[in-house]
Amino acid sequence: MSADALPRRAASRGAAIAYWVSTFLFAAMMAMSATMYLTQPTMAAAFAHLGFPPYFRVELGVAKLLGVVALLAPVPARVTEWAYAGFGITLVSAVVAHSTVDGPAKAAAPLVAFALLAVSYVARLRTERAL
Fold it and tell me: For the whole model, what pTM was predicted?
């Protein structure tokens, strides 16, 4: 084993841990929000408050559940990339919607989710490079 293999191995192990922790936390957040979108009447009211039509809540809930599967299941890399892109667009849109209607303070939750998504994505790239 070469001298620089040990630091690279430790770095890849750290990236793998960061990837799985951030991805699991993000996936849990998205699965919980999707479930709430599909089952909670208060979420229907929240979507109406933001000015979205009722069907959008259902579409977004289903899309989030499919995205969670794409992040956690062994699917082709291209599918995972599209899931990251879709979540990124959704979260940026959520920040804009909440900030516009209720002010920037209400955009904290989608910003936290976006940060977790970014950590997951960067750690995934680092893990893949280390292999």
Answer: 0.87
3-state helix, strand, coil in the chain (%, to 5): 90, 0, 10
Q: What gap in Å lies between CA 16 and CA 116, rounded to an integer?
A: 14
Mean pLDDT, consecutive 10-residue segments, the chain of 131 residues? 53 86 97 96 94 95 97 95 97 96 92 96 88 62
Provide the number of structural domains found in the chain. 1
* Cβ partners under 8 Å of residue 32, min gap 6: none
Domain housing 60: 5-130
Helix/strand/coil (H, E, C) string of 33-56?
HHHHHHHCHHHHHHHHHHCCCHHH
